[in-house]
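__Protein archive entry__

___
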Amino acid sequence: MRRLILLASVAVWFAASAFGQSSPSPRPLRAFSCVFFRPLLYSVPQQAPPPARANSATGATLEQVLTLLDQKSASFKSLQADFEWDQYQKVVDEHDIQRGVMYFRRVGNNVDVAADIQVPEHKKLLFTGKDVQVYSYRTHQTATYPSKNRDEIESFLALGFGGRGHDLQKNFELRYAGIDTIDGRATYKLELTPKSQKIQGMFRLVILWIDQQTGMSLQQKAMEGQFDYRLARYPFAAMKINPVKLPPDTFRLEGK
């Protein structure tokens, strides 16, 4: 159950994708674990590297990217973004694709998250307290996944969406992997290796592609073992940062 909650919380994108699966998975529990796995191919340096220097090849340093996230977090209020979640499992060579719309809003020191999963089955994921709730429009039933630690879930939900950059260092070993282009947008690429052994048992590595201008995540990839992964895409063209007003009942479930 703990893995289900972590999964649903990760990435929002990760989180909702996990709880919104339309068909059984060969590894149901691990399918819900979306952003942390044992380092099989990736290892964390044993000694701290010398201070990085920005150049034309890398575009920035890790410190500069974390500072950008800190700055954007200070003004972050809400976000609406289309998403596509792709869960790949090597053993069956299958892709489980889900699409929908994700919503974030800051309430005091907390971040609420809602995901309207539209394809292949209409569901809604909601995290506004300590519990993760998933409503099925097909069965008209709500499943509740309680959690004792909101901060733990929120730390995953806010990956690349309004969270402070330097806060990532509390739970991850960080590596700046240079620049990349996603949907025609220049991005900084960050690699996150979980410090917690519990999380490493679910995801060995998380990769974020951070927009250089907005500080928002345009793409996220969670490596599960050596070959399996979860890939989340958030097209910039459909992303609304700090919109004046989110759709009515965004953070409410049907019948409540």
